[in-house]
Fold:
Amino acid sequence: MKFCAELICIGNELLIGKVVNTNASWLAEKITGLGGNVRRIEVVPDELDEISDAIRLALRRNPFIIITTGGLGPTYDDMTLAGVARALDVELEVNEKALEMVRSKYASMSLEITPARAKMANLPKGGTAIANPVGTAPGCLVEFAGTKIVSLPGVPSEMQAIFTRSVAPMLEAASGGMVFREASLVFQGIPESALAPILDEVRKRNSLAYFKSHPKMYEGVPLIEVHISTTEASKEKAEEVVRKGLLDLKEAVVLHGAKVLKEP
Structure:
């Protein structure tokens, strides 16, 4: 079964353009590959009201999972978990499992626990600590009204490690083995406005496939890449849907005089 996900990326650095939001694109790709459907990606500042409001609004849409990134560290502006707690109308509390994770990490560096470091073990009441195999701040899982809220660090290597180890298996189980497949064709010699009605006809014959055109420019030559994708219950079915979509599109566009520059 295809599940829905929403991403909330937290950090002023994303909103002022200092940092490119690679976390969102990485997560979207992984979730899609696991059979999920990312419905929204939102970026909010390091402000308690903004974080809690974003989570409340996402919960109203009843996704299977909300994933937040950023704001789990020891500084004053790391307030993601406080925002989650406010959105759920629960208190932050010291999570003993999280505290042990933090304490163990710093002990391995011969460092003691300070109030700032202990702050990373404060989770929303009822939350579960998720081990961080790379960094010091644990992730957090809270369930509310059928939705899982997973909070991950903003450091890409930490976020990716926790997702791969602890979140991906959960999503794979939720999808029931749904399989995502994709492929692309690149055409020369046809403008997008001429391609549009061709795509409409091909789509009618391939209702299970999603077609998306992307105009490009290569060495001054206009090109169009068409991306074809689907999510199905089996690898065989997904590959069949994409293969048929590719073949139908290629034949239709070539008939209109275009040249195929790239195909799988």
User: Anything to note?
Assistant: The CA atoms of residues 43 and 196 lie 32 Å apart. The chain has a mean pLDDT of 96. The two ends are 28 Å apart (CA to CA).
